[in-house]
What does this fold into?
Amino acid sequence: MVRRPLGNHHHGPDTLLVTPETTHTEPVTAETARLASLVSSARYVLWDMDGPMCQLFAGYPAHEIAGQLVAMIDGLGMGALLTAQERSGDDPHVALRGVHERHRGSDLVLALEEWLTRRELEAVSKAMPTPHADPLIRTWSARGVRFAITTNNAALAAAAYVESRGLADCFPHVYGRTANLDLMKPDPHCLEEAIKAMGAVPSATLMIGDTATDLQAAQRAGVSFLGYARNAGKEQDLRDAGAEVVVRSLEQVLDVLRSPS
It folds into this structure.
């Protein structure tokens, strides 16, 4: 956890709420209303970083980091710990979790987690901001809504990213991956820690995430969820997981904030 003492790719026009029934007016209107309700009722917003705020690995591809992590595990003579799926994954968290599940609390897991943290910090300088994320954060924050970051990436990397964007003042609380990888989302630990730190009420709290694990963590923490999907595949994954409201552009959220009450 990092605490500060300071108080897209998409298809079609940004203003369209994409649903499985986009050719029909009623479902789109209903989802627009649900989005407006989520935004208007949120007094606290928990942001996942990689996805809703930025593409952390835009300039330092995640699949390369995942490959390097597997090679590191092999170099230590521990490659047999990984399944074929874990070895071939594009997400470095997959291999890291695999080792953790078979060697909980080991020095190996600690070393791999620290290595991944360094790679994430290196990726910050080349991260690509999610379209409309920065103005949305500033606009929403200016209205008195309080923010925290709840991410499976390292808190140090998340804090470095918002610092690089001039957004540190908007995020007094940053919670990320700990040495205990069991506490990564879908476990609600980082959400619950942020809620406690902000003195938030779960019923007035919204999480913005881009994965099924984000949705599951939000459900377990008792907070509302807004899905962000930068492409059709991501959207379908979120809807299959049960997300009721998914946006393909954060401009849709900005439009809600800017519309007359």
